[in-house]
Amino acid sequence: MASSVVWVILALLASIGGFCSADPTDGFTSVPLTESNFLIQHPYNVPLRDRYSYVDGVHKMWVYSTDKPFKAGSPTKPRTEIRIRGYDYSSGVWQFEGYVYVPSGTTGFTVMQIHRADGEKPATDLMLNVYDGELRLYSGRVVEHDVYDRWMRMNVVHDVGANKLWVYINGVLKLEAKVRGVSDFYFKCGVYEQSDKNNYMESRWRNIKVYRRDW
């Protein structure tokens, strides 16, 4: 509990400029990631290569609004997403980091999620969605403006014990939010269709990392 309080204080100081040189990953250690940690979910009726590519370190993921879900019989919407596996967590402070690029002309989809692994409803504690060039918390609060056609460093910190999360864009704290409580969680990124979408949706990711807090 004490460590959670310390992290909350540090995040608050960062948000008001208390230590401008601080990086979101300070105090965290990256965990090893290999290809086996990246489970790619894609429309079940098309080959992976038709919805995903990996070239020069960039994961490119795309879907069409007419696509099938990731498995037959699923009521979910079209997606091409990386599900981080091997690092599901239910305690401690964890962090997702990646550089994301969203091309202009695409809207109405999720680029990053904190997902519950136990089948609870609702299934997520965080969805960062793109609508008309804005990155939003679900369909509500704006997290970042003018996201099209540029690379953004995204860091998402989740303190399970404190039921809180923080979202940083390019090292700047943009969102602090309360979440629903303890569960088993995992990170996802890519493209998952939402409302008011285009026919074609795409995001690109590079330098994906997962961290655990050291203290």
Automatic annotation (TrEMBL):
Signal peptide: 1-22
Record carries keyword Signal: yes
KW Transcription (keyword) present: no
Entry-linked InterPro entries: Alginate_lyase_2 (IPR014895), ConA-like_dom_sf (IPR013320)
A Pfam short name: Alginate_lyase2
Alginate lyase domain: residues covered: 36-211
Protein name: Alginate lyase 2 domain-containing protein
Alphabetically ordered keywords of this record: Signal
